[in-house]
Amino acid sequence: MNNRCILLIDDEETIQEVVQLGIEIEAGWNVAIASSGLEGITVAQNHQPDAILLDVMMPEMDGISTLSQLKANTKTQSIPVILLTAKTKAADKNKFQHLGVVGVITKPFNSMTLASRIAKILEWDW
Amino acid sequence: MESFGECKVEKLLLQAIFDRSWEAMVIVDQQNRFVAVNPSACKLFESSPEELISKSILDFFPYSLDTTEEQNIVTIEIPQINGTIQTIEYTKVEGILPTYTLLIFRDVTHLKRSAAAELHLQHQRIQLFSEVTLKIRQSLQLKEILQTAVTEVQRILKADRVLIYQVLPNGTGIPISEAVLPNYSPILGMEFPEEVFPPEYRELYAQGRVQAISNVHSPDANLAECLIEFMDEWMVKAKLVVPILQNIQPKTGKNQVCVRLWGLLIAHQCQTTREWTEFELELMQQLADQMGIALSQGELLENLEELVAERTANLQQEINERLEVEAALRRSEEQLRLIANGLPVLIAYVDKHQRYRFNNEAYQTWLGLSPTEIYGCHLQGVHEQQEYKKIQEHIEAALSGKQVTYENDIPFQDGCIHSVNVTYIPHINQQEKDEVKGFFALSSDISDRIAIERMKDEFISVVSHELRTPLTSIHSSLKILATGKLGNLSSKGQRMLNIADEQTERLVRLVNNVLDLQSIQSGKITMNKKACKATELMIEATQAMQMMAQEHGVKLFAESVSLVVWADRDYIIQTLTNLLSNAIKFSPSNSCVWLLAKMEETKKKNISYNPQGKTNSYVTFAVKDKGQGIPENQLENIFERFQQVDSSDSRKKGGTGLGLTICRQIIKEHGGDIWVESRKGDGSTFYFTLPALINVPE
Predict the structure, then answer these.
(1) What are the chain B neighbours of A113 within 8 Å (beta carbons)?
(2) Hey, is the C-beta of A3 within 8 angstroms of any chain B C-beta?
(3) Contact A111, B472 (CB under 8 A)
(4) Which residues of B are less than 8 Å from A108 in CB distance?
């Protein structure tokens, strides 16, 4: 359980920090950080994380574009993606599911319970 | 003997005729000398027989004595010394004796005079009648007629006083017109005492009695003592009284005409006593008759005038009232027209045949449709086919008597598509069995509102997104700090951390609630309604709140029911958890909160029904607690935003003040009602209704 690696793609530095710390404290997993979609795709290709936390609202390449590229890339398409979004609308959630995401976590969230929520979504042992 | 006898009788008879005749008879010889004269001849020639015999007739009658065959009676007028004229007629009889001639004279002076007088009087009478009649015709004014009558009668009769006495209903009477010589006192307007005119007199006069009294003091007059005294008082020596009778047509009677004693026409002689002639009597009577007719006419006229005046006044009033009403209507119509044209709204009236019967000026300015041009046109002819199809169902609903409101996008004259809110108000004729005569169509331009709403949504969305990211950081940082893995805090430090954590959680809830409410109210989310088992909803909500209940030491009970509702599962669970959360928060520890549901018949009209269930029933859910209760005056407004019973509740209980508003909005979206029953200190029960489904397969 301790050897899990999560990739967080989010442009917000404070989010990067609290997510990284929270997951490490809660579950002891490694959290790789990417500050943009483009960087995230590269990291995902190179490091093959167990799961990707992807922020929807990002400058330049947003979460949806990033997602479609991840899903279009054979090296990354099998990596489960969980979206981090400020949007709560059910319609949006449905749309995201159609795009191939495995789960949606709505902001604001508690980073100290994030690992357990990821594990629940991905049905990992906890 | 016989012949002798006959001769003798004849002689005697002739002698008698000759001697006794009123006519003057003389026999003259061939030299016109008197041979024989009778006494009447002596009287005519004012001489004795001795003075006449042997004298020539021409000495006494110096006129020609010739007669002709055509004119055997000759009239001779002889002027007298006193200025009068003596009229003599004579006849000459020749051939009775060979040398003698019989002349017969007759003095007809008297006869001629009385004929002339009669003629004159008749002329006067005709003149009087024609004058009176003319005046009657000219004026028809009673007073004038009566005055003319007394003046003329006084003039013709040369009476000292002529008056018209009107009989009053109480038996007395009063002279109402009078013509009197200056030497005598007028008695006009003087009321006669009743005793001088007793009922029996009235009765007699009513029957047409005429009284001609030549001397009031004469026993023949047979006047009552009091009347004689009364006559003396006014120096009356002789009097002539004729009744004025009036034909009246009783209102109740059909053609029966009654005669009424209206009054008396009275002539007084004061200077001397007076023998009243037949002519005078007749004159008075005929005048009285004329007056009677005039009176009837006058009264008819008066009645007619009264009726005309009354009717005229009524008509005038009616006209005035109608004019006022019309003016008020015009003003009102003008005001309405001004209002209708001034309002920034499309206003139209459409009849039951879907034809425009009124359009305000906004149709011209907004849509470029001239109200006069589209008047009477069918909606289908005014609107494009596609547009008409879009609104057809609403038109039909309005014409079936339902008020309809919908939103539509229509192209305006400015080339832009504008959003309009349209309301159709059916015009129902209450008297004709609720027949729909047409509908009023009101369309307001809500483009600005829609734009503002869009801006608001975007603003809230952006703000909420911008809030969520820093909130996530703060929230997570505090949670990490609270683990103690980054070092231990002092107890005060820990307390501060807890406050920061609690308030952050509250802020998170608030942001979530604001967004929820905004999205539900904007109508942008559609309720995903399905058949839901009430028990499942209740159990799920109870389970979700179990943790919180345990924390508060409150027991939750959910009733098991076999009811199915037509609802959006997630939103109803949100409503139930919201209500349960409130109930738990405000319940004392060791108390219970109940969640109940039951089927009820529809009482409220505002529940909309799903097309599948076709139900007239609804399910009422109830969340009941034994908390502090809600004061009565706050039962209504606790469903409003940020309305809490105690303003400190939001801090103490961690509420946002939006929970119940969201619940109400969700229930409204389901076509149900939400309300609360509570007594301060005795707990509260929140109810809401949802359409029930019956006969739904399990």
Answers:
(1) 479
(2) no
(3) yes
(4) 468-469, 471-472, 475, 508, 511
Q: Which of B457, B460, B463, B468 should be substituted to probe chain A, the one whose Cβ sees the most A Cβ atoms within 10 Å?
A: B468
Mind listing the pLDDT tens digit for each residue in B492-540? 888 888 888 888 888 888 887 787 777 777 666 777 888 999 999 999 9
Q: Which of residues 500-539 of B touch A (CB under 8 A)?
A: 508, 511-512, 515-516, 519, 525, 528
Mapped onto helix, strand or coil, the DSSP state of residue B384 is coil
Q: Hey, is the C-beta of B483 within 8 angstroms of any chain A C-beta?
A: yes
Min Cα separation A75/chain B (Å): 30
The span from the CA of B57 to the CA of B79, in Å, is 19
DSSP state of B639: G
Tokens standing for residue B61: 């009658």
- The owner of tokens 């060791």 is B590
Q: Which of A94-98, B37-41, B658-662 has the lowest mean pLDDT?
A: A94-98
User: How, if at all, do strands A81-85 and A103-106 pair?
Assistant: parallel
Paired residues of B86 in beta bridges: B78
Q: Does the beta-carbon distance from B469 to A110 stay under 8 Å?
A: no
Q: In this structure, are residues A19 and A10 in contact, taking their beta carbons and an 8 Å threshold? A: yes
Please check whether residue A1 touches B, CB under 8 A: no
Task: Identify the closest residue of chain B to A114 by CA–CA distance.
Answer: B476
For testing the chain A interface, which of B460, B465, B471, B480 should be mutated: the one with the most A CBs within 10 Å? B480
Distance CA B624, CA B677 (A): 9
Which range of A13-27, B271-285, B459-473 scores highest in mean pLDDT? It is A13-27
pLDDT band at B596 (very low <50, low <70, confident <90, very high): very high
Which whole-number Å values give the CA distances from B173 to B258, B524, B693, in the listed order?
Answer: 21, 101, 99
**pLDDT for B606:** 44
SS (HEC) of chain A? CCCCEEEEECCCHHHHHHHHHHHHHHHCCEEEEECCHHHHHHHHHHHCCCEEEEECCCCCCCHHHHHHHHHHCCCCCCCCEEEEECCCCHHHHHHHHHCCCCEEEECCCCCCCHHHHHHHHHCCCC
- Cα–Cα separations (whole angstroms), residue B266 to A107, B210, B302: 127, 10, 25
- Record: contact A110-B475, CB cut-off 8 A: yes
Query: Inter-chain contact A22–B528, Cβ cutoff 8 Å?
Result: no
Position A55 scores a pLDDT of 92
The residue assigned the tokens 């849509």 is B367
Report chain A's terminal Cα–Cα distance, integer Å: 8
Mean pLDDT over B558-576 rounds to: 89
Cβ-count burial of A21 within 10 angstroms (0-12 exposed, 13-18 middle, 19+ buried)?
Answer: buried
Residue of B nearest to A10 (CA): B469
Report yes or no: A112 at the B interface, CB cutoff 8 Å: yes
Which chain B residues have a beta carbon less than 8 Å from that of A28? none
Cis peptide before A108 (omega within 30 of 0): yes
Give the confidence band of B698 by pLDDT, cuts at 50, 70, 90. Answer: very low
Residue B621 has pLDDT above 50, yes or no: yes
Task: Give residue B64's pLDDT band: very low, low, confident or very high (50, 70, 90).
Answer: confident
Mutate: best of B461, B472, B486, partner A, most A CBs <10 A: B472
B470 chain-A contacts, CB cut-off 8 A: 14
CA pseudo-torsion sign B469, B471, B472, B474: positive
Rounded to the nearest angstrom, the minimum Cα separation between B341 and chain A is 44
Does the beta carbon of B99 lie under 8 angstroms from any beta carbon of chain A? no
Min mean pLDDT across B96-105, B236-245, B372-381 is at B96-105
Q: Please give the ipTM for the structure prediction.
A: 0.84
Between CA B571 and CA A17 the distance in angstroms is 35
Residue B31 to residue B99: CA distance in whole angstroms: 10
